[in-house]
Amino acid sequence: MTSSPPAADGASTGQLLVVAAALVDDLDAPSQLLAARRVRPASLAGRWEFPGGKVEPGESPEQAVHRELYEELGVRVGLGAELTGPDDGVWRLSDRYVMRLWTAEVVSGTPQPLVEHDELRWLPVGQWSTVPWLDADVRIVHALSAALVPAATR
To answer: Which of 71, 93, 102, 124 is deepest in the core (most CB within 10 A)?
Structure first.
């Protein structure tokens, strides 16, 4: 993981930038990861993802993460390090979208599925891959586990 921003933001390739958070119970010693189950579009309904969304015009990616988590989950968060993606610094989600992702922990509120999701689930270490993640998020879950969880507890 790195705290420095990646060189790519998607703009130079014509792709749309989205942001998300790997919400954990403790940034220093994570033992749980929050997964959010999508309700739409139909092609993604029932699959699990990291909460987040599109960066709005005039908004920094970090501002977008804070806004999206408040809108989607009703929580204020503290951001940790960014998990830099292998695709020019971002995570390629599709031909159209790339994503930047930060670790985060709740500093105010209790996560609730307000929009986009119908269920939230805290997954304990060792069970982070037990829900059907969106295809593009599977490699992120593996990278997070490698970066955040000591080998003995994976």
So the answer is: 102
